Amino acid sequence: MDFIVEKDPGLIPQVLSKILDSCVNGVTLADPDQTDLPLVYVNKAFENITGYSQEETLGKNCRFLQGTEREQGEIDQLREAIKNKKPVEVTLRNYRKNGELFFNHLVMTPLFDSNGNVLYFLGVQYDQTRQIRADEEIKKLNKRLEALKN
Protein backbone atom coordinates (compact mmCIF):
# COMPACT_ATOMS: atom_id res chain seq x y z
CA MET A 1 0.00 0.00 0.00
CA ASP A 2 1.37 3.40 -0.94
CA PHE A 3 0.56 6.57 0.96
CA ILE A 4 -0.69 9.54 -1.01
CA VAL A 5 1.84 12.06 0.26
CA GLU A 6 0.25 14.89 -1.68
CA LYS A 7 -2.87 14.51 0.49
CA ASP A 8 -1.02 16.07 3.43
CA PRO A 9 2.78 15.95 3.25
CA GLY A 10 3.15 16.95 6.92
CA LEU A 11 0.67 14.43 8.29
CA ILE A 12 2.11 11.20 6.86
CA PRO A 13 5.52 11.52 8.62
CA GLN A 14 3.77 12.42 11.90
CA VAL A 15 1.42 9.43 11.65
CA LEU A 16 4.25 7.07 10.73
CA SER A 17 6.38 8.35 13.60
CA LYS A 18 3.54 7.73 16.08
CA ILE A 19 3.02 4.24 14.68
CA LEU A 20 6.71 3.41 14.91
CA ASP A 21 6.98 4.80 18.43
CA SER A 22 4.20 2.44 19.53
CA CYS A 23 6.13 -0.64 18.30
CA VAL A 24 7.74 -3.00 20.81
CA ASN A 25 10.73 -3.56 18.50
CA GLY A 26 13.45 -1.03 17.89
CA VAL A 27 13.22 0.66 14.50
CA THR A 28 16.05 2.65 12.93
CA LEU A 29 16.84 4.28 9.61
CA ALA A 30 20.41 4.75 8.42
CA ASP A 31 21.26 7.10 5.56
CA PRO A 32 23.53 5.59 2.87
CA ASP A 33 24.10 9.03 1.30
CA GLN A 34 25.97 10.27 4.37
CA THR A 35 29.47 9.32 5.47
CA ASP A 36 29.60 6.21 7.68
CA LEU A 37 25.89 5.35 7.32
CA PRO A 38 24.60 7.35 10.33
CA LEU A 39 21.29 6.81 12.02
CA VAL A 40 18.75 9.45 11.01
CA TYR A 41 15.78 7.97 12.87
CA VAL A 42 15.34 5.82 15.99
CA ASN A 43 12.02 5.01 17.66
CA LYS A 44 11.19 4.93 21.36
CA ALA A 45 11.62 1.14 21.58
CA PHE A 46 15.22 1.50 20.33
CA GLU A 47 15.80 4.03 23.10
CA ASN A 48 14.24 1.66 25.65
CA ILE A 49 16.24 -1.36 24.47
CA THR A 50 19.61 0.40 24.30
CA GLY A 51 19.26 3.08 26.96
CA TYR A 52 20.51 5.70 24.49
CA SER A 53 18.33 8.71 23.63
CA GLN A 54 17.69 9.98 20.12
CA GLU A 55 20.08 12.85 20.79
CA GLU A 56 22.85 10.36 21.64
CA THR A 57 22.30 8.15 18.59
CA LEU A 58 21.26 10.31 15.66
CA GLY A 59 24.20 11.09 13.39
CA LYS A 60 26.19 8.04 14.58
CA ASN A 61 26.73 4.66 12.97
CA CYS A 62 25.08 2.09 15.22
CA ARG A 63 28.31 0.09 15.54
CA PHE A 64 28.81 1.98 18.82
CA LEU A 65 26.45 -0.63 20.31
CA GLN A 66 29.09 -3.32 19.68
CA GLY A 67 31.45 -1.87 22.26
CA THR A 68 34.79 -3.60 21.79
CA GLU A 69 33.25 -6.76 20.33
CA ARG A 70 34.06 -6.05 16.68
CA GLU A 71 35.09 -9.64 15.86
CA GLN A 72 31.63 -11.10 15.35
CA GLY A 73 31.01 -13.08 12.16
CA GLU A 74 27.55 -11.58 11.97
CA ILE A 75 29.10 -8.15 11.51
CA ASP A 76 30.77 -9.39 8.33
CA GLN A 77 27.38 -10.66 7.12
CA LEU A 78 25.89 -7.24 7.85
CA ARG A 79 28.66 -5.39 5.99
CA GLU A 80 28.32 -7.70 2.99
CA ALA A 81 24.55 -7.18 2.88
CA ILE A 82 24.96 -3.40 3.02
CA LYS A 83 27.60 -3.48 0.31
CA ASN A 84 25.36 -5.61 -1.93
CA LYS A 85 22.16 -3.75 -0.97
CA LYS A 86 20.52 -6.95 0.27
CA PRO A 87 18.41 -7.71 3.34
CA VAL A 88 20.00 -9.64 6.21
CA GLU A 89 19.02 -11.08 9.57
CA VAL A 90 21.65 -11.48 12.31
CA THR A 91 21.94 -11.61 16.09
CA LEU A 92 24.66 -9.35 17.48
CA ARG A 93 26.26 -9.04 20.89
CA ASN A 94 25.54 -5.40 21.75
CA TYR A 95 25.81 -3.25 24.86
CA ARG A 96 23.32 -0.93 26.48
CA LYS A 97 24.32 2.53 27.65
CA ASN A 98 24.82 1.11 31.17
CA GLY A 99 27.32 -1.44 29.80
CA GLU A 100 25.00 -4.45 30.07
CA LEU A 101 25.29 -7.06 27.30
CA PHE A 102 22.19 -7.74 25.24
CA PHE A 103 21.55 -9.92 22.22
CA ASN A 104 20.23 -7.76 19.40
CA HIS A 105 18.35 -9.71 16.74
CA LEU A 106 18.58 -7.33 13.79
CA VAL A 107 16.63 -7.49 10.54
CA MET A 108 18.16 -4.99 8.13
CA THR A 109 16.40 -4.17 4.87
CA PRO A 110 17.41 -1.68 2.18
CA LEU A 111 14.58 0.66 1.15
CA PHE A 112 14.70 1.64 -2.51
CA ASP A 113 13.24 4.56 -4.45
CA SER A 114 11.43 4.07 -7.76
CA ASN A 115 14.77 4.22 -9.63
CA GLY A 116 16.32 1.39 -7.59
CA ASN A 117 18.54 3.65 -5.45
CA VAL A 118 18.81 2.90 -1.73
CA LEU A 119 17.07 5.65 0.22
CA TYR A 120 17.66 4.18 3.68
CA PHE A 121 18.61 1.00 5.45
CA LEU A 122 15.77 0.01 7.76
CA GLY A 123 16.81 -1.79 10.93
CA VAL A 124 14.36 -3.62 13.16
CA GLN A 125 15.85 -4.71 16.48
CA TYR A 126 14.49 -7.30 18.86
CA ASP A 127 16.11 -7.87 22.24
CA GLN A 128 16.60 -11.65 22.37
CA THR A 129 18.57 -11.66 25.61
CA ARG A 130 15.94 -13.46 27.70
CA GLN A 131 15.41 -16.13 25.05
CA ILE A 132 19.13 -16.77 24.58
CA ARG A 133 19.77 -16.92 28.33
CA ALA A 134 16.82 -19.29 28.78
CA ASP A 135 18.19 -21.53 26.00
CA GLU A 136 21.63 -21.53 27.67
CA GLU A 137 20.05 -22.49 31.00
CA ILE A 138 18.12 -25.34 29.37
CA LYS A 139 21.37 -26.65 27.83
CA LYS A 140 23.09 -26.55 31.24
CA LEU A 141 20.18 -28.37 32.89
CA ASN A 142 20.13 -31.01 30.15
CA LYS A 143 23.86 -31.62 30.67
CA ARG A 144 23.25 -32.05 34.39
CA LEU A 145 20.45 -34.52 33.69
CA GLU A 146 22.70 -36.47 31.35
CA ALA A 147 25.41 -36.60 33.98
CA LEU A 148 22.92 -37.93 36.55
CA LYS A 149 21.87 -40.72 34.17
CA ASN A 150 25.44 -41.99 33.87
TrEMBL record:
<keyword id="KW-0285">Flavoprotein</keyword>
<dbReference type="InterPro" id="IPR000700">
    <property type="entry name" value="PAS-assoc_C"/>
</dbReference>
<dbReference type="InterPro" id="IPR035965">
    <property type="entry name" value="PAS-like_dom_sf"/>
</dbReference>
<keyword id="KW-0157">Chromophore</keyword>
<dbReference type="Pfam" id="PF13426">
    <property type="entry name" value="PAS_9"/>
</dbReference>
<keyword id="KW-0288">FMN</keyword>
<feature type="domain" description="PAS">
    <location>
        <begin position="12"/>
        <end position="85"/>
    </location>
</feature>
<protein>
    <submittedName>
        <fullName>PAS domain S-box-containing protein</fullName>
    </submittedName>
</protein>
<feature type="domain" description="PAC">
    <location>
        <begin position="86"/>
        <end position="140"/>
    </location>
</feature>
<dbReference type="InterPro" id="IPR001610">
    <property type="entry name" value="PAC"/>
</dbReference>
<dbReference type="InterPro" id="IPR000014">
    <property type="entry name" value="PAS"/>
</dbReference>
